[in-house]
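Why run this: before we spend reagent on co-expression, it is cheaper to look at a predicted model of the complex and decide which construct boundaries make sense. The entries below are exactly what would go into the expression plan.
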Amino acid sequence: MKFHFVLNSILPVILTFLLLFFGSAYASNYDPKVEELQRALILTGFKPGKADGLWGGRTENALKKFLDEQELKLESVDYSKAVQLIFFLWNKQREIDERNINYLQEKVTLDDARHLLERAGIGANINDLKKIIGLTRSEAVSHIISEIRTESWLPLPKFLEGPNPAYWIDGDLNSEEEQAFRVARDREMNEYRLWWVREIIETSSPQTERLVLFWHNHFVSAYSAINEQSTSIARQNMMFRELGIGNFKILTKAVIHDPAMLNYLDNDRSEKGKPNENLSRELMELFVLGEGNYSEKTVKEGARALTGYSVNELRNTSFYFNGWNHDDGTKTIFGKSGDFNGDQFVDILFEQPASYEFIVRKFWRHFVSEVIENNDEIAEISAKFKKSDLDIRTLYRAVLTSKTFWSQEVRATIVKSPVDFLLGTIRSTGFLPSDWTSLPNKLAMLGQNLFEHPNVAGWSGGQSWITPSGLLSRSYLAKNFFSSLGPEVESMVNSTDTPTEMTKRSISLRYASEDFQGPSLFEIRLKKNEETEKASKFEFGRVEYKISAHGIYTFLTAKFFDVRTDEITNPKPMFEMVFTGRLDLGKFYAIRFDKKSFFIPRLYSDPNKPGNFSVYDDTVNDGSFKKLYNYLHVKDQSLIKGVCNFFVKENSLNKILSVNTLHVRPKLQEFLKKDNHKNDIKALSKWCQKGWKLREGIIYASEHKSKNGHDTEKFGRIEEDSQLPWQTLNLNIENDKEFDTVEVAFLNDHCCGPGGSQGGDRNFFVDWVKVDDDLFLASSGTQHGNNCSSKGGKLYCSGWVRMKKSISLEEDSNRHGSDSNMKDKLYVERVGLAWMNRFKKNRDWNDISINLLNPSFNNIHYNALRIKFVRRKNDDIFLMLSSDDCYPDCFRNKWPQRTHRNNKPPYKKDIKISLIRRNNQDHEAHYWGLNKEDRKFIDALWAAFPQMLEELKSGRSWKRAVERKRTEGWKETLDYVLKTLPITRYVKSAGSNPLIVRPQSEKASMMAMMGAIDMSYPYPAGARPLTSLAEIGKSFEREYFSALQNVFLATDPVLIAKSSEDIAEIITDPVYNLK
Amino acid sequence: MDRRTALKILTAGLMIPVVPIKIAHAAKKSGRRLVLIELSGANDGLNTVIPNKDHRYRELRPNIGLDKSETISLSNDFGLHESMEPMGRIWESGEMAVVHGLGYPGANRSHFKSIALWETGGDGTAAGRSGWLTEDVENMPGQEQLEAHGISLDGGMGIFSSASGVWLSMTSAQQFMELTSDEVPSMKTENQALQMLLDRAHTLNSSMESISRKLKKSYAREFRIEGGDLGAQFSRAILLINAGINSPILKVKIGGFDTHEGQPWRHRNRLRNLARATAGFSKALKQINQWDNTLIMTYSEFGRRAAENYTEGTDHGTAAPHFLLGGSVNGGFWGVHPDLGNLNEGDMIFTMDYRSVYERILSDWFMLKENKFFKFRNDELKNIFQNS
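The model came back. Tokens follow.
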């Protein structure tokens, strides 16, 4: 059979071919793009020969034939356009095939359209529905499949642009640095998670994201199980987009080369002799064959084949075939024997009949039905899939055109996943809740925390979504889905992000709140460091103390008399204050002021006692003392300052406690004998000081209420900090006075509900504050307040975090500039020990490996470099650089001619540069085979060696080596090197001490992080969010949508009235959980 | 199914009287429950139960090792960390068992992965897919009413991961007053997914109603258990038990055991809270007559390395002892302490598979003789429970 279509007439737009035709020269190298093209040609009946990825005559002829038949004249082409065109034809061919299948020729109804979109996409957006209603089902499926993309709709997050974080050196970080490193990775993970959520909401091709989600849950790797490798997990996600609609075997092979997967299933540590079986087992059980289709013996043999499939962290966390760890012995797998490697193992797996049906059944369960299995159809689909040589497009089309897929019996039978439920609702309604940035948390709450699967089998879907907590959360979220309708969401949609130029200063704060009976209150303050507190002007003559008790309370009153007035004639004290204590607690717990001190209006009084005010930790931290203090007259303020200062002093304390106690009750006497009072009074006075000191030096302060907090009363505490609902507050202020520090205070701490903090607890978290171009990081700030023991920005208690400027985001001076004194210097950001062994004389090879982070020397720059210092038994001492140990490639991959090359994968190359030139002729050739700049670089490396040795000693790896006694025995060798180096050509060329260590500038990563600030809200399915129910209702044009329920519900509701047109109500029906 | 048929089925379904759905169980009969304490972060077994007589212990731990005088003597050979004095008293009453050297083949040193193994009953060659006891507990024989199969009081649900059953997370009693589940009519439909959804909503609703009702009735009595957050979780557990809420499994957690540095004070602090909270819980259970049918068990992702590190701490290791407590526990030592003279690359070699303990709990405590850990049945643990 031959099909003839003129694509030019089918495609409304004439496709222009942008890139230069690759020419007629036959490439001899494998090119995955060529393979993709060949596979597309095979599937459409043009015969390019074998899909071997090699460009040759047959491929070219097949492509020409295709182009001729389609009357496409082209002088230039790019592969992906060509592939796209071929698959366009392919879909048309399939439509011809389907002409005789009656149910596929039926016109798509609203029910059909919603069914197809909800299953193959995410939600059912109004415009997408309109596009397919009225087509034949066959055409509708073409529509879905032809618009599957291989790249994301949105640009990638910025943190993926540069090289990966230096995971290879993180073992050298001390615990604080490690913490900061981890926090940075968590931040990236959160950014990516939110990025994906946004992609799903906005994309014009939800079918692409449906497939990515499918693969995300098929080839599972969880972020927290792979040592926080945010970039690896993000790149894996990109890979699913790129290969997810291609060939299943190619995808599977990519997965066994994927750094995140190799880490997740521990294959990166799998060695010859002790293979790790995880990847081998899951490859068969979960990825390709299914349980029961392999033996334990095969797991072991497969694991051997996979040994050596690992990751080189230093080389940008990329796949690395470690030939030394690979077991190249003979394995027997499914009856075949040979020295198989992992790729060949995968090939053998796909020769097993179970392999086709396994993935077909998984597609079936995902897209068609979890309950109904039509085995005849499944066999048919498997046969097509097999015939297509594992083409995912073929599989997908076969599933979506199956009779069962379109039958009524499978409608409304699949439980929506949390992504369907939440993000689908956004796409379907066009409404975006104003707290959209916390969507990832909400997904987690519903049981689908993206990138954190419960285990390697992934989310099992179906009824496992309907756990008790899942049900409760669904019901809660459905009922509150539209809660931010109205002003809140309108202000979000209408806000313009461009700050007015009139504003003198802009402040941004990134924070998160755990709410309890309401949101957090917080204050942002800019402060100028004042001179130390000026001596108080408060002067007095005499203090008189009195003690009294009332029930369990005791009052220690201090009366202050004026120095200038004669107390005999005027015995009225000018000021009075009371330390309040409780006999049963055995302590003083507050300082009380009342009308004898100064007038206290009701607004600022103790709520239970108008005219009174008690100072203690709570009233200081919740800001009420601050409010009273600000209200008071300057005279009274100085009275407070004066007395509080007074009672911090030792001799005042001694005096107050020598109060006459002869005439008080025995119980009170007993109370006063306790020796903790002095400390209690002192502590209270300090709180009092804090109360007003807080306000000193403030040049700007404003109070705010947190948004979109996590309600701990309803949902319990957040388990991991990374799941906090981060928000950014942006302020433009008119105040441009100078300041030194930024403080963020948490004003209304609340602990706890019944049963302690787990019963609900209000907590506040600060990430950073940005004031104009200066960044203030909470992680390097200090936390103040009562019993606030945690570091940085975790305000679990009332208190404040004080931050100093850590980073200026303004362009800093060129770090590797052409400044003359920077010339010929070796700059690195960190020197760390990579590895060393205990020196043993009789061992042929003793070595110390040193990591250099971002070394740069004149125009030479590496992100990562590891140099090996070696002493051989023959006394040759040299530095060694290997192709595995540079990123990017050593010497831009221009190796000296006589470079030492390994003849075994990974075909490692290395050069060795001896300390003493006469020692080794080969090494001399290495040295002189380098170009001049690289030679100078080597000179500098050698000359810097003594400095490196000193530098690396401050890292954790060195300490660990000391502990393991690996640093022993080296003295003699190192002494010799230090003595000899000055007379070598290296020091003569590079001078001594050419190394300059400059710790990493956080700027780049911070800039990426700050990207989050300007993040605008996403457009559901590409359209501006709707802001009222009326607007949403109006968007559903009646000619298409006679009843709103038909748009949202896959079957009749069970709780709400069948006549209900209220969207907010419709989505609360239990049936809305089904698609 | 077209809409009209669906309608018929649903209307027909509505006529079925609303009855609470019963969950099969047997726990009420014996009234037995298991309370699991997760020691999150990997507890250092060697500094919890100290081999006082073993000179190699102090060689491995010159700085952070405990002196004999810093331990509470449990036997000639072993002492308990002195900060665990409240648990020492339970030991004296013969109601605390220490099971030595628990671990599994193919040790994994990732917190995340290894705790998942302990919670699903897996090992280095294969991880489980669901909680280690979910299946067996869901299939317990008997017909009386349970409010839940298990309740997590710390919010962690890994150990309860199951596609069925009523496994609740209840980080506050308040949540049950705050969150309302939908009242759904009990109905029958041919749509299995919808049926499942409605049944579950219905079961949950009855469960929560019953829990709320019972809680409200007994809310007056408050138990204050010391020991920080763990004590607070136990207070809530007692609240549930005292209110008569039937759930055979309760789970609590205490964190902070990842003592890579500053172990002497960190660990002491953790163990003190563990012991105070556990002893407080035990006392409260005795007061309400529930001590004899409660079994408390500790677990943790792995033990720590035998030798200390240079920052006065210990790194991730393998085997560790765990505790079983309760009025029906035969106290004393069970199993064999790992040989400190025979370390595998610095790690103690486990002497008993942790699943042997699981097996005993399922078979001898819950009387589920044919449970999924049958092949780990271990005679060394015979009679660890009285009258089992």
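The mean pLDDT of chain A is 85. Chain A has 41 helices and 33 strands. Bring this page to Monday's planning discussion.
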